[in-house]
Design goal:
mainly beta, six-stranded antiparallel sheet
């Protein structure tokens, strides 16, 4: 699906999330913990989330699957309170 531009909203001042056009068949172990910069898939949505801050809370069941990460600069998302368009693309 990449590159993909999604309209993303803020959740709990720790992540931006957006609805994918379709579900993914992503493998991987579901997790309940995250790190700043994680890009994660939450299958019930189907949503994708980008974590830009950490509040010490864990993600409830069924958890999420880490798809990738932003190595630096994820905290720039803190300054956007409302909805924002985000383009996600693979980097070689």
């Amino acid at each position: 699906m990449l590159p993909l531009t999604l309209q993303m909203n803020d959740l709990l001042r720790r992540e931006k999330y957006g609805h994918l056009p379709r579900s993914l068949t992503a493998g991987g172990e579901p997790r309940s913990s995250y790190e700043i910069g994680n890009i994660a898939y939450w299958s019930p949505g189907p949503d994708i989330a980008v974590f830009y801050d950490h509040d010490g809370e864990s993600i409830p069941d069924p958890g999420f699957i880490i798809l990738g990460e932003i190595e630096s600069g994820a905290d720039v998302l803190k300054k956007y309170d409302g909805t924002l368009d985000v383009t996600i693309e693979a980097v070689d």
